[in-house]
Design a protein that fits this description.
It is built from nine helices and two strands.
């Protein structure tokens, strides 16, 4: 295996050790020594891959964002036939909810990054980077739905797309706090989509019942 691949793979393994710590106690409580112990390597070995905690945090944030994007793409690709805009939106939005252990860890780590990013300019810039792309993706699907007559044209806006992102972020927080369980959050998401896609009193482009 090429040396470069080994180096990248080890950096990813260290990132995943950091996520486990972050999901359990946040990023502030995770020192380089703690991460090294969690990864099963020495502190000196960890510093061979990351010269500082900030460098490690930035790499780990980019890595978890890539994995989250891959998970959402997998959900879209798993949809049968040619998915409707509503089905694409539901796949994306439900993929952002902490409905299983894998996604729960991802949301917990994201929350830990959010707390640190509020005070760290570099992490804040990185954390903000993906939001315009996600907003554009959702707005494009809303406009596509309006063109198909499945959504009132006045709802096909970037503001509406941003409200969808904000809604799922809020539901995710409440699932983590055990205010709601995942099934309830998903039901609320489906209810909102049903109201959003209501045209002349009828729901348009509704997905087949079932599935998470």
């Amino acid at each position: 295996m090429p040396k470069k691949v080994d180096h990248e793979a080890r950096r990813q393994e260290i990132s995943e050790a950091l996520w486990r710590l972050a999901s359990a106690r946040g990023l502030e409580g995770a020192s380089l020594r703690d991460v090294a112990a969690e990864a099963g390597i020495s502190l000196g070995r960890l510093q061979h891959y990351f010269r500082s905690k900030d460098e490690m945090l930035l790499f780990a944030l980019r890595h978890i964002n890539r994995l989250a994007g891959d998970r959402i793409r997998e959900r879209i690709e798993a949809l049968p036939g040619e998915p409707t805009p509503r089905e694409v939106l539901r796949a994306c939005l439900s993929g952002m909810l902490p409905l299983d252990e894998r996604s729960r860890v991802g949301v917990l780590v994201g929350a830990a990054y959010f707390t640190r990013a509020a005070y760290d300019e570099t992490l804040r810039a990185e954390a903000k980077n993906g939001i315009p792309q996600l907003r554009t993706l959702f707005a494009d699907q809303l406009r596509r739905a309006a063109e198909r007559g499945e959504l009132p044209p006045e709802r096909a806006t970037e503001d509406e797309a941003m409200l969808l992102i904000g809604m799922v972020d809020g539901l995710s927080t409440y699932v983590l706090l055990d205010v709601y369980d995942g099934r309830t959050a998903l039901r609320m998401l489906d209810g909102h989509l049903a109201r959003l896609f209501e045209v002349n009193g009828a729901a348009a482009g509704a997905p087949v019942a079932g599935g998470g």
